Amino acid sequence: MLNPSRADRLAGLLEFSIRSLPHPYARIFLRRIILRHPVRAMLGIRRYWLQSVTDIQEYRLSDSGEDVFVPRAACAAEHLLVATGFCQKPVPVAGKHDGCPAGRFNHDCLFLTALELGPPAERFASRACEDCFVRVLGHAALRAGASFAILTSALDVAEQILIPALELRRFTHVLMALCPYSLEPMSFALQVCCMDGYVFAFDTGACSDYREWLLADRGDKREQTGLSATGIRRLFNLLNSVAEASSQSGPSRPTVFESIDHVLRPVPGRTAPF
Ligand code: SF4
Fold this sequence. Notes:
The chain has helices at residues 6-20, 24-35, 38-50, 66-75, 110-114, 127-130, 133-143, 154-168, 183-192, 210-217, 229-245, and strands at residues 58-60, 80-85, 147-151, 173-178, 196-201, 256-260, 263-267. It is of the alpha/beta class. The strands form two sheets. The chain has a five-stranded mixed beta sheet, with helices on both faces. Strands 6-7 form a two-stranded antiparallel sheet. Helix 9 (183-192) links the parallel strand 4 and strand 5. The radius of gyration is 18 Å and the shape is globular. The termini are far apart. The chain binds iron/sulfur cluster. Residues 89-90, 100-102, 109-112, 125-126, 128-129, 132, 134-135 line the site of iron/sulfur cluster (SF4).
């Protein structure tokens, strides 16, 4: 378990921020989030500064435990955002499949957009879907009644997730998997945008420096990322606890996703409740 000092965390955040200044996502973040909402920004910065981090692979956005997070997230589960990077989509495996049939650097998943919970049995669009972590995570998110996003560029994250979370309270809670290199800045941004939850760092295939991260931010990412076994267990435990605590039932229970602004939002489907 890593236990980063506050100085290390701040140094990482500063390094990322300074390198990011010339790029559009940083200007959007500064203009639309920090400058337009200075009071919330200051409160978020304070939250970030005071937050103690005991394990950088499981970054908790507030000091409250899962006994607080789970019931609150379950209370309005569609405002819980479950998200992971496009880099978790399968890459081609010789003799087996050609990688994600929806393409890699986009928000799309053929399986999840066609998914309807309950019978009939789910069908895979490709053999790549069989072992796909994105499929399993998205499916668990729908079972919990949560929203689900495949993250691409930092600019898209700012426009599709951070700003709607801050200005519309579209997302209040989050369970997110992402690159350890962007974990500090993303955790900071989520705290500034008043979101509570957990951020899990990829254990394999992750970018190791800003140059690699910037290439990935433009879609140039060959490696397939993955969480550690502990991270996967923890993420699914939290998500399954939200599903159990969620009281949604009957006709209003979400059974399908609808894509709104590139985020899959849970909505009731055609199948009778089960
Ligand atoms: S399940 Fe995975 S491989 Fe299949 S379409 Fe979705 S993201 Fe691509």
